Amino acid sequence: MKRFFNWIIVLSMIVSFSSCEDNKNVDNGGTTSDVTATREPGSDSYTLKFSKSGDKTVYQGTSPESVDMDNAVAETNEDSVVISGLDTKQRYYFAVVFNSDPTDVSIVSETEIAVKGQPNFADLGGIITVDGKSIKWGKIYRSGELSTLTDDDVDYVASLKLDAIIDFRFPAEKEEAPDRFPEGVDIIPIPVADSSYNEDIIKKWLFAGNKEAFDTMLIHVNRVLVTEEQENFKEFFDHLENGGTFLYHCTKGKDRAGFATAMFLSALGVDRETVIDNYLKSNEYLSSVTEQTIQFVISLKLDGELLRPILEVKPEYIQTAFDIIDNEYGGVENYLRNNLGVNIEKLKELYLE
Known about the structure:
Elements: E1 35-38, E2 46-50, E3 56-61, E4 74-76, E5 80-83, E6 93-98, E7 105-108, E8 121-123, E9 140-143, H1 151-158, E10 164-167, H2 171-176, E11 186-189, H3 199-208, H4 211-228, H5 230-240, E12 246-249, H6 256-268, H7 272-285, H8 287-299, H9 308-311, H10 315-329, H11 332-339, H12 344-351
Parallel strand pairs: 9-12, 10-11, 10-12
Antiparallel strand pairs: 1-2, 2-5, 3-4, 3-6, 6-7, 8-9
Helix pairs in contact: 4-10, 6-7, 10-11
């Protein structure tokens, strides 16, 4: 066991993130409707799966802009294809042309970033907005903390060509689990308080079997994020509006980063159902770590299932945020513009295509 599981330290409950690579088994590739891409950490292969029938011609590059459309790497009429022999420390992007129609092209890469040391690490590229535009690939990433990245992971993250990492954690969180990241990336600290809860309170609830407290904790957290952290999220959007390639993260990548993602997607015009579906992806990415934590608490003769509501995310958590925004701030667009100072038009210009 490597490190304390930050805000849920119960007795000597220490949760290892050594099983992070086991989480990389979820088929959660790109959100482009016609094709998805997945890659295992350290693999020299991508698997592309197609939802559209007919002939497919595949081209590749190391950025969306550098895809070599003169040299195909695969041709198939099957529903999937494996592209192998790739640099294991380089992220790739693929253009798929359907039925030789140059106007019917999908660009895709993996959504869940192929690293071993952080399961909840995703590219927001490929998500479709209500007006049919899509978020650019390779521009905005969200994740949990980066302290458990391996050396190979750091090399892989270097291929993302990040301009900056925005860290929502407090100094004590960063001291306990310092990030690992490539040289030359700017670090922007924006400490966001997701609640007033501390380890003693969590322990008290656990020993008392206080199910209601655990069930409602993250509902309260989302209320705090909406009402008390506006200046911090305003700063977050200010940086995004400068343009560039950003990764933002908190500890697990699901609460503070989850709220930030919901606001970012909403600003770009993604429908609320899709926003909530994306929010819930953290449950898939973190499933192995969640189950490991619960089983460890059970091994201490305590009710580990009590912790599930704060180890996972539920629709009602982010729906609480939206309900407050709708009822108290006049809707998400008003909240973004008037309370967070977001220039929605500029964000769309920078991050949509």
